[in-house]
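Aim 2 progress update. The chain analyzed this quarter is reproduced below.
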Amino acid sequence: MRHNDRAASAPWIRTRLRTAPGAATALAVLVLVTAFLAAAFPRAVDAYETKGLRHDILTADAGRSTLEVARPQPGLELPQAQRDDEARSPELARIGAGLLKALPAPLRADTSSVAYGVRTSKPAVANEPWLPRPEAVPPQLSYVAQSGLKEHATLASGAWPTTPQEVTSDSREVQGAVTEETAAELKVKAGATITLLTAAQEPITVTITGIVTPRDPQGSYWSADPLLRTPSLVLDTASPFPVHYWTGTVLLAEDSGPALLSTAAEPVLFWRIPPDPAGLTGPDDARLTSVIASMESGPGLLKVREIAGDTAVFATGLGHIVEANARMRDAISPVIAVAALGIGSVAAVVLLMTGALIAGRRKAELALMRSRGGSLRGIGGRLLAETAVTVLPASALGLLLATLAVGEGRFWPGALAAAGVGLLVCVALPLRTTLQHIRPTLGAAREDMVSARPSRRRTVAELTLLVLAVGAVTALRRRGTSAEGGTDLLVSAAPVLVALIAALVLVRLYPLPLRLATRPVARLRGAIGFLSLARAGRSSAGGALPLLALLLALATAAFGGSVIAGIGDARDDAALASVGADARISGASERATLPDELVRTVRDLDGVRGAAPVRVEYSVNMPEAVAGDGAANGDGAGSGSADDAKVAALVGIDPASYAELARATGLPAFPAARLKATGSSAPLSGGAKAGPDRVLPAIASPAVAARLGKEPRAIETLSGDFEVQVVGTVPRVASVSPTDFLVVNSAALEQKAPTTLLLTGAPDPGKLRAAVEGSGKEYAVQLRSEERARYVNTPMQAGAERIYLAAVAAGAGYALLAVLLSLLQTAPERRTLLARLRTMGLTTGQGRKLLAFEATPQALLAAGGGLFTGWATIVLLSPGIDLVPLALAGVAGSDTSPVLLRTDLWSLALPAAGVVALAAAVAGVQAWWASRRGSITELRAGDSR
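Predicted structure tokens:
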């Protein structure tokens, strides 16, 4: 019997696939794309996290990322021969090899740049008369006998330092070398000698035999201690006067370490191990942090001391680099989780809609099987086998394509995601189909949304979902969206919750306007309007499932578009805050002024639309705060603390040109009329001095305005001594980055010469720099476009941005697919309707209008609901989402104040308009296709449609 069942199952599946190859192929393609996206997402997240971790380690300063094990020189109680042996290369190499083997996973070493040796930890004064003394202070030099010099440098002149005979603690002559940069700054030549004193004040002669050039100056060999390659002019902190002296490093021959043991320069033995991030992955950061902490002060340190000695210490800044990477990842993950959960929900709903469409098309066939004695188990088993034959290979192929497309990433998360897609389709389609046939049906009941009443079970289920969703959103709104300690699923599910609430409410409210509109339309001449409204109310295309898919897709697309737009806006604002305008010219120092000829020359360049000369004086002491912290009435927003504005920047401007610049660059409106220089603040004639009672109107930042109050206050500046009276406030100005400032009319100052010139327009960078260089002095030129280009994406930022672009595209694609599925579900009914109406005299043009008007209510409902859902999602999540990690993280000097998510109109409107346009286009195509088919083809005797 079982054999016969199996024999009967195979022809059934083969017959079904041959009968409807188009439907099977379409389902397979949909599952393939969905499985590909589901499997690619976790792999893409792993990939950008991995690249971000490797990038941060590779680009970090070698002094921070290198692992260094060091211990003091061997104890003086040991025999001299033993002390010398411990400082020679064979013993150091043996310990270094042991340390490399002992590195715990996932920590791995870049063996090509490992260095070990003996170095002095305390610089020694070099009194040679030929060494430079910039302020009569002799240089202080460090000495290092480090391995691998010949492998990491080339000989520029002279000869390599060697050890002609064995070096011991008693040796008084050694050979060394310096880099080209050290030789140039310290005037060292091959053959020169430098004296290094021992602890007993005996001289050790260091002969410089050669000048070397680093092969990789930025590599860890040379950059773990930058003094190895580049000398530095440092401030003498021990001197009562501000004097500087040179410091640098002399590279001794590799086996010269024992000679340093006799010095008083506190020699230490060291092993520098640069990490190799090539084998690290994003999920390794937690283990890496734990391993580094263990080696710094834990069981790992005990293992290090077993190898290198009981006094060995382990030091590295790699842990801080990994922690900073983890903080950025934790800041980006909640934003990515919103896109993942939103698109995943849309995909699941679309797959369920596909099952509903297939179930609707086969409803009559399965009803016939059920009426002839077919069991639910037998029908469900056949449907499961039929579906699995198509879906499982498509899911496997999607997983394979995702694995090939995204090379780096863990396999199992992607495999589980693809398997989940296949399982959902395999289970949902048979269940959805068989549940409709629990009881045999003799005929299909008419589904009319306007007159039909939902069952009590459906009402209870919808009310339960509605209450749960509203409760979740209320809780989310009360406690905020900032998640501590990782991704919060409740926050990530905000689009799903809002879309679910909107879908349930809109589906219930949808019949009300149809009832109101049907009555007046029924009185009009012509049947098109009445028929379209009646069909719209009867159509199952307006059900909760299609509407939920559209709302989810539109909300996710709007959220993703707003995130991408917010990143661009944040970078534009940061570039503007840094430069102040489209271009900026300033002196090499804060007090350097710009000549009038330079200002005129630059103003006349092609592409310059406006020029605003500005005089900026930083660190001006403000008077004591007035009692009560009274603030002037102004036009700016925000408030400040008077105690925080003890020092501010004085900004002298030409009000007219600055106000025009503020309008052109999008800065807050500037009340230029309030700075008009009249009366006691009238412009001074050339060389005139301002009296102490001279009062200048000023525009201030909120904090400065709160400190100065409403009455005139005296201030002392390099531009003159005068009193200022705050007449308005603005939150920011273009010329200074500090938040505390005081803006006055430069014409009323004793010193009017500008220190900065702000330009608007698009001048040619080459011509602008040439004009500035032609002035004969050194001035700094900053361009807003170049500053904007600094905000390049790190691998983690770029990966997250690509995921959001893909989320927006996938959301739009699934939204369009949801519209198509909802319209295809009722396509046979539409064709039959048009065929019947054509027999009654309906023209082709009227048929197109009928279908277009019928699709309009559902499309408008989805578009309006999508606009509301997207806006509500952004409003709900914006307080807890900071776009700084995505937009500005990793850029030195950038403004890191929070960048909140803002609603982007285009991201809301374009997807919604696309839904309406697609619905109209599909309706038009259906009408055109139906007009090409004859009525006889659609209308057949006994057809129940």
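The first strand starts at residue 67 and ends at 72. The chain has a mean pLDDT of 80. These observations will guide the mutagenesis experiments scheduled for the next reporting period.
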